[in-house]
Amino acid sequence: MSDLKSKTVNGLKWSAFERIFSQGIQFILILILAKFLGPKAFGLIGMVAIFIAIGQVLVDSGFSSALIRKVDRTDVDYSTALYFNVSVSVVFYFFLYACAPYIAKFYEQPELELLTRVIGLSLVVNSFCVVPRTILTVEMNFKALAKSSITSVVIGGCVALVLAYNKCGVWALVGQTLVIAICNAIFINVIVKWIPPAKFDRKSFNYLFGFGGRLLISGILDTVYNNIYQIIIGKKFSAFFVGQYTQANQISSIPAMTMTSIIQRVTYPMFCHMQHDINKMEEYYLLTMKVASLFIFPIMAGIAIIAKPSIALLLGEQWSEAAKLIVILSLAYMIYPIHAINLNILQVKGRSDLFLKVEIIKKMLGVIIVAVTMRYGIMAMCIGLLIHSYISLLINIIYTAKLTTLGIWKQLVEISPIWLTAIFSCFIAWGCAIYFTANNFYQIVIMLVEAPTIYFALVFLTQRKIVSLVLSIRK
């Protein structure tokens, strides 16, 4: 177990470094490109995002999770997954190619036809990454994954900036997507040096699809739901407003998704190793949840309070609508990593059936909320998303409690004090900034100094045990 703990801590450090660094670059690029390109370019990409996202879910089909969980995996298992991944990507690309004119017609945006056909190529390229990435994850070699990801993001970002500077519009974003995909495919395969055997095993496929199939369905449901806002806004309003929402959603979600990716990437293989030791797994689960809360809660609350002055200062009035949405969306994504940790438990326990059931319940609830709020505008839709996020967490916990002793009360006792501390600290800082000055720059400075000071002081006083543990890990 000590070796596993060492791998987990090392993996957490490298995974955190990779996600924070690469997503940090992406965040900066989003701000720079938003200044160059404006809302419409991001809106056009947002309109086709759902099709690319569904394609990515289909390409993986839950096979990577199935492979990680399988104790006696072989090269034939890997090769079976690879040939399936690539085949699905090619079939889906041709389907997307044929549907491109209808997508353009649906949104009444002619340029979407060529844009969809070009950006769809990234799916085929990404299919060659699924198995090599899984191999490195199984080995918990997150250092190699970090090198590949960061290098790809830097190269893709440079390409995007050059294209944007030369007034290529939305094609700067398309070029960035393709270059990142191609570079990552090359780098990750060179690092792994795995040559697949020329064999597709039906028995192996049945096992992988038997576990991954339900994850596939839940993944599609999740993807459709997460992108339904772009579809409705794009059809009901315009590419300009899709751009406002897409930008707000990206800025709000990047920190939460980064933390979630780190947690899932490291803890899923770790929990899989512990799947027969329920007490140890629950101990590590609560620890992971509390450490995640300690970092993500203040970050998301902080984004909410600095959104308006930051957007006004950096991007100008053309993005003013996005600033309002960021406040709501940041609070919605605040608990996203806790969602992910709960769902990890269901996968580790092999209950992909419960995983699917949970997703169906949450998405049905989400569709009802969207149907009710869409008539009142984009802001109302985002408030609905906020409400849905917190209800969904309770649903996740209820089903986690069916397999563990980690019920609602036990989890809320762990995370509620940290949540309240983060909200209180940021609210006080926001109030002081608004009271003392109307200057955007000085408001940001006051908030960024005062909120962390209050938060860390309160956390140190009330959460000394977890703070000491984090400091010991850092050493």
UniProtKB/TrEMBL annotation:
<feature type="transmembrane region" description="Helical">
    <location>
        <begin position="393"/>
        <end position="409"/>
    </location>
</feature>
<feature type="transmembrane region" description="Helical">
    <location>
        <begin position="115"/>
        <end position="132"/>
    </location>
</feature>
<feature type="transmembrane region" description="Helical">
    <location>
        <begin position="418"/>
        <end position="436"/>
    </location>
</feature>
<keyword id="KW-0812">Transmembrane</keyword>
<feature type="transmembrane region" description="Helical">
    <location>
        <begin position="171"/>
        <end position="192"/>
    </location>
</feature>
<keyword id="KW-1003">Cell membrane</keyword>
<feature type="transmembrane region" description="Helical">
    <location>
        <begin position="442"/>
        <end position="461"/>
    </location>
</feature>
<feature type="transmembrane region" description="Helical">
    <location>
        <begin position="44"/>
        <end position="68"/>
    </location>
</feature>
<feature type="transmembrane region" description="Helical">
    <location>
        <begin position="20"/>
        <end position="38"/>
    </location>
</feature>
<feature type="transmembrane region" description="Helical">
    <location>
        <begin position="365"/>
        <end position="387"/>
    </location>
</feature>
<dbReference type="Pfam" id="PF13440">
    <property type="entry name" value="Polysacc_synt_3"/>
</dbReference>
<keyword id="KW-1133">Transmembrane helix</keyword>
<feature type="transmembrane region" description="Helical">
    <location>
        <begin position="326"/>
        <end position="345"/>
    </location>
</feature>
<comment type="similarity">
    <text>Belongs to the polysaccharide synthase family.</text>
</comment>
<feature type="transmembrane region" description="Helical">
    <location>
        <begin position="80"/>
        <end position="103"/>
    </location>
</feature>
<dbReference type="InterPro" id="IPR050833">
    <property type="entry name" value="Poly_Biosynth_Transport"/>
</dbReference>
<feature type="transmembrane region" description="Helical">
    <location>
        <begin position="144"/>
        <end position="165"/>
    </location>
</feature>
<keyword id="KW-0472">Membrane</keyword>
<feature type="transmembrane region" description="Helical">
    <location>
        <begin position="284"/>
        <end position="306"/>
    </location>
</feature>
<protein>
    <submittedName>
        <fullName>Lipopolysaccharide biosynthesis protein</fullName>
    </submittedName>
</protein>
